[in-house]
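User: Hi! I'm working on a homework problem where we have to compare a predicted structure to a textbook description. Could you give me the structure for the chain below?
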Amino acid sequence: MCTPAHFSFPIQIRPLHFSDAFALEWHGGADLRGFYEDQWRAHQAGEIHVIIAASDAVHGDNFPIGQAAIHWNGKPTHPQIPDIQSVRVHPDLRGQGLGSRLLSECEKLVSARGHAQVSLSVALDNHAAKRLYERLDYRVVGAPYSDIWFYADATGKSVRMEETVWDMIKTLYHP
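Assistant: Happy to help. Predicted structure tokens:
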């Protein structure tokens, strides 16, 4: 259990639980339930590792107030580098250091598995996240590109998402 100086309540960083798929609906509502169910399956299969920041102080009962997912097989632009995706902090708790804490925990896990680098992507219009990542020593690599992904909404309809992103890489250690 850790209590950052910015929080007046304890925060637990832990692996994803099955029940988090529904509790995380504060981000995207029921339309993203399929995304969170797929995330659970990939976490269980070991393809990704999802960490949750949770607290009893927000909505009680170890409620997830943030998350980040490590995709061990990277992404098409950097398949050899684990990629951090789906970094989310509850809107009421942003700007208090929780995103930095989640990223730090991901970096420790990636390093512990022997990877010297970690990557992530940031949308061109997400200036606050880009500033955070740069402050944490992530550096833009390559030109912006169009990232496309799909999820099934609450009715089962496939939804196509597209955004222009920068890839960013952080060197954790030099082999």
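For your comparison, note the following. The two ends are 31 Å apart (CA to CA). The chain is about 25% helix and 35% strand. Good luck with the assignment!
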